[in-house]
Amino acid sequence: MAVVTSQQLNNYYAEYAEQDVTFTKDVIISLGLITKQVYIKFSGGQQACIIYSTSMKSAKILINLDPATMGIIKDQNNQVSVRFCFRNADRPSDHISFFIQSKITSMSLYKKESGLYLITCEYSQRPPDDLIHILGTMLEASIVAKKRREERVILTPDTLRKLGFASKNAALVIDNVPRNAIIRDISFCGMKVIILGNAKFLIGKTFNMGINMKDGKLLTLRGKIVRFEAVEGRKDICAIALEYEEKAIPMQYTLALNSYFHSVKSKPGKQESAQPDESSSKSQVASAQKGEASTRA
């Protein structure tokens, strides 16, 4: 995990301690939660469970409980330990795991036929720094995404590295037709890409795009084309502005852009990188032309 200071952890806890994070599929993937290694531990045993949501003070958990297990927990005054396990983003082969001492404060039957319960576990003390860091980073990213919604980051070799993107090249699909695209700049709400040909007729159409990350993951974005721009001195290519469908933006994309802003320690309202090298852009366009010609053939 990235290096984080005690002051930053304290700030995260002070600002976000009460805020719940619901563990949707996107959040599970983005935070690297290893669901098969999450469970509740109690005297004499443990039981696999599903984290429905958590804050830095409590968690809502789905768990199968039989009468015998419920009796054991009740005899312990509802005291349990919740085990979390996450993948280490810096070393994927390593895991970050920890227990949090808790007390079950509520329990309701979720599915009667399977004995599935929704329980609330109140943490007995401040959780480990790892959980504060993981949740705080995500909650902060969501807020920054709103404040800096339209700030553009121009892609250069340096920004690509900081964002964790494998390259500027992306697979763009418009009306089920695949196209080669070169990403010029990105923001939390959209991006500008360069494609071959005249794209005026594409305004208003929907798109799907895949971006390869250095960690091997593929980020999928979708939305609509909102603007067309000519490229000075080039009639064979053009730039189009893409606006994302907000509910479909992967959390990993938001986290990557927020991490970039952290790395440059920039001020809101300031464009974050220099213009890309012109010769490099022309070279990539030439490669895209060859690739698209090959695809059409």
Low-confidence stretches: 266-297
Tally of alpha and pi helices: 7
Average pLDDT, to the nearest integer?
Answer: 88
Q: Which CATH C-level class of the largest domain is it? A: Mainly Beta
CATH architecture of the largest domain: Beta Barrel
The CATH topology of the largest domain:
Thrombin, subunit H
The biggest sheet, with number of strands, parallel, antiparallel or mixed sense and barrel status, is: 6 strands, antiparallel, barrel
Radius of gyration, rounded? 23 Å
What's the shape?
Answer: elongated
Q: Cα distance, first to last residue?
A: 45 Å
Number of strands: 14
Major beta sheet, strand line-up: 2-3-4-7-6-5
Helix content: 25-40%
Summed up, the domain count is: 2
Percentage of β-strand residues: 35-45%
Task: Draw up the topology in text.
Layout: H1 6-16, E1 21-22, H2 25-31, E2 39-42, E3 45-54, E4 58-64, H3 67-75, E5 79-87, E6 95-111, E7 116-123, H4 129-147, E8 153-154, H5 157-163, E9 169-174, E10 177-186, E11 190-196, E12 206-212, E13 218-231, E14 234-244, H6 251-264, H7 278-296
Antiparallel strand pairs: 1-3, 2-3, 2-5, 3-4, 4-7, 5-6, 6-7, 8-10, 9-10, 9-12, 10-11, 11-14, 12-13, 13-14
Helix pairs in contact: 1-4, 4-6
Give structural notes.
The chain is α+β, with helices and mostly antiparallel strands. The chain has two domains: 140 residues, Thrombin, subunit H (Beta Barrel), CATH 2.40.10.220; 147 residues, Beta Barrel (Thrombin, subunit H). Helices cover 29% and strands 38% of the residues. It has a six-stranded antiparallel beta barrel. A six-stranded antiparallel barrel has the order 9-10-11-14-13-12. The C terminus is likely disordered.
